[in-house]
Amino acid sequence: MRIIIVGAGVSGLSTYLLLEKLLPPILGKTTRKLEFLIYDSHISIPAGAGSGAGPIGNTSILPPTSIKILQQIDPELYTLFKSQGFENHAFTIRSARGYTLAKLPTTTTTTATTATVDQKEEYAISCPHAVLKECLREIVGRREQPILHGKVIDVELGGGKSPDGNQKPRVKFSDGRPSVEADLVIGADGVHSVVKRAVFGQEADEKHYAPEFEGFGGVGSFIKMDNSKEKKKDEESVPDIIAKQKSAVVTFGPTGSFGYAAVSPLSACTTLGWWSNWPSEEIPSPESTDAAQVQKQLEQRHGTWKDPIIQKCISASNTSSVYPLWTTPKLPHWGKGGCVLLGDAAHTLQATSGQGAAQALEDSVTFSLLLTHYLSESLQEEETSLDDFDDDDDQRSTSSHALAQSIDSATKALYELRHERVANIKTQTRNLYFGRRKITTLWWEYTYYCFLFLVTNFPRIGK
């Protein structure tokens, strides 16, 4: 059984680790061998090697449910990731005028005397966006699984008939190398997914299923803060809300939002990640800005906001990277013809939701368990049915059909179990931004703060 994974990000690599663990016990009962081919258009990592990349990009905050998923995927992954991030016990929601609107715990309460290993209390972990991917690549490297450089430009769907049974999906590359056939192609290639384009055809590039600009721009970076007793005069201290209260902070105002959180364990020198999102009618272009212009725009949007940490982040800003926030419209399904879409390829959420990596992990676990279940059932049925065929060609055709049917069933079940959840997250995130309304008067601003108080303290209102 050959599985091709397009995209070496969170959903692609976590799915590899899960299937690499779950499938061998099932396939070991047959003559099938399990082979994975992981392709990424940006990197090539040989087996047994880590990528060695440093923290690049913005900040991610992984919720407690995702931390538990990491432990299920691989205990080494869980330990490695937790050692590189910061444990947040709460989210503090503030207004631009300095009012605290809500303080939300990041985990449910479990007493230490009754907690078991499975019930161990977990908290949200914040880290640079690249850290989770780097941890996954490190663990994949330890499994002696190479990540191959290859830009996939098209996928031929399976499902038709070939001389030796059911036609399998096949991926094509930009450099003209021979196409590669697989039993399953996993599209984990992001919002502008090539696999999604193959699944939906021309409609994937048109208004029906093409990525949508969410009407927001984003920018973010990191600053160093001194947490030592011998702090120099010109160095900033880690704020108490992080050092003592262990909270991430998100502030909302009439011109957007601004958030910050520690992205490394508290030590003598701690890194603080910050991010800003703002409503924009036009799609922001990274090429049209420089660091000074970005800093000026930050001052215009947030210069009067009361939180002094926000002002320190702005004054230290040296990034020139701005980015548009894209989402994926609701799709009627997440795969066919031996191809399945996971993570951003299936349901890109707003960056402001903070749920992109979390939902990618949930996709990976759900699909891996479903595929294992249906494949186990089909193999049991296959053992019975093959006894009725004397011809090798008939046996091979039946075997291929059973495998394709298992993949199709798992793909359909994934959509049924997951699509409403991600749709609800998208709706709730839009509600936090007042349905993307423009706030132009003081009356609307305070109405917005009242609305935020209600939807954060009484979540059912925001659904």
UniProtKB/TrEMBL annotation:
<feature type="region of interest" description="Disordered">
    <location>
        <begin position="383"/>
        <end position="402"/>
    </location>
</feature>
<dbReference type="InterPro" id="IPR036188">
    <property type="entry name" value="FAD/NAD-bd_sf"/>
</dbReference>
<feature type="compositionally biased region" description="Acidic residues">
    <location>
        <begin position="383"/>
        <end position="394"/>
    </location>
</feature>
<comment type="similarity">
    <text>Belongs to the paxM FAD-dependent monooxygenase family.</text>
</comment>
<dbReference type="GO" id="GO:0071949">
    <property type="term" value="F:FAD binding"/>
</dbReference>
<keyword id="KW-0560">Oxidoreductase</keyword>
<keyword id="KW-0503">Monooxygenase</keyword>
<dbReference type="GO" id="GO:0004497">
    <property type="term" value="F:monooxygenase activity"/>
</dbReference>
<feature type="domain" description="FAD-binding">
    <location>
        <begin position="159"/>
        <end position="378"/>
    </location>
</feature>
<dbReference type="InterPro" id="IPR050493">
    <property type="entry name" value="FAD-dep_Monooxygenase_BioMet"/>
</dbReference>
<keyword id="KW-0274">FAD</keyword>
<dbReference type="Pfam" id="PF01494">
    <property type="entry name" value="FAD_binding_3"/>
</dbReference>
<protein>
    <submittedName>
        <fullName>FAD/NAD(P)-binding domain-containing protein</fullName>
    </submittedName>
</protein>
<dbReference type="InterPro" id="IPR002938">
    <property type="entry name" value="FAD-bd"/>
</dbReference>
<keyword id="KW-0285">Flavoprotein</keyword>
